[in-house]
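Field guide to reading this record: the first block holds the primary sequence, the second block holds the structure written as discrete tokens, and the final block holds curator observations. Each block starts with its own label. This record concerns FAD-binding domain-containing protein, catalogued under organism Fusarium falciforme.

BLOCK 1 — SEQUENCE
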Amino acid sequence: MLFERHPGTSIHPKACGINQRTNEVFRILGIEQDVYAACAPPEISGRLAWYTNLGPDGREIFSREAWGQGQYAEEYASHSPSQFRMLPQIRLEPILKRRAIELNPDGIKHRTEVTALEERDNGTVVLNIHDLENEKEYEIVARFVICADGGRSFTEKLGVEWTGQKDIFNMVTAHFQAPLRSRHPDPRNFITWFTDPRSEGSVKSGAIYQLGPWPTPDDGSEEWVFLCNLSSSDPTSFTKKTMEERIRSALKITDIHIDIITLSHWNVNAINASKYRVGHVFFVGDAAHKIPPWGALGMNTGIQDVQNLVWKLELALGDEKRYDSLLDSYDTERRPIGERVGLTSLKNLRMHREVMDTALGISDSKSLAENEAALEILFDPTHSGNASKRQAVKNAAKVLDTEFKASGSECIIRPPFRDTTYHIVGLKSKARG
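BLOCK 2 — STRUCTURE
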């Protein structure tokens, strides 16, 4: 049974990259082809670029292929028959919900919130439920609880500490509608990063990515996401009006209609729970780890957490005493991964400044004139430093493979250690480890 305090699936875009391992999980669930049908088409889901802006004087800084498309297609295909695809979470969740209802028609309780939980001596967990629709309170008793509340309360309430770096900086994300593909110099780019000398580097200049729906509507009603780290000139909290102005400032397109749909302010964290299990309660997703989005590892890691856990819970429901140590393996196997992908994603974030911005010569410690002069070298073929700067930018984009071509992080190519000391009779004929 799933308790969800919201009336439906997410209304604000979150994650968008679905890696090969996650699509393997979706194949097991019977929804892989449904996901592919809703995804961005391959011709726009495997490319990104850096631009100064998209206005009349906008120039491309660099573009590259990514995420298993183009030159990387053969390599990714050798790792898995499943594909890395782009589908924003607001379009993925309805597919997951539909399949969940097919498997368990009464299993999802919207507008209900778990307000407290307590483990009893007999090994059961009592959950206090608040029915938000009818303003009623009631209790249920569970054998096991999967806590997937986004790390909003129960991780700390159960005495679990976080390790890592918290509240690194503030971000804002805007979901908006605008006829932007026709104004983009190369609409094949799924993500476009901006590097504006006035905005203290690429992360503060911001980025846009495509949100569909697909096939792309021809009436100009396509949807996008804009995100940026707040710069010194930004307000501490955006309204729809000030966000529209901020997007126009990044795009440098003054005559385009922008309709802001939703806004979200959030902090970048790279933290991991000190344990993923407390008695009969297990933490997954953001309740176990909060991962920066650079590398598309957050949602994927959460889904893979659940895949690791649920089959162990199924066995334990039949014989908890026998399989209790197997349940412990969830923490042993997944917690190091949560820590690793958090550090990897944080490194990806910092490399935008430390590698790409450095290659361009852009820095928030320099004056606007110095930043403009440094960037202009890239576009002046007669300048003595042009060739070396172009090579530096190309090298920087290659270093960012850890974000845009990270099959090792996405698929875990190197297998975990093998335990060949024994096998569980009856699970698989001639099984080892």
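BLOCK 3 — OBSERVATIONS
Residues 2-41+69-164+274-334 form a domain with the FAD/NAD(P)-binding domain fold (CATH 3.50.50.60).
The two ends are 32 Å apart (CA to CA).
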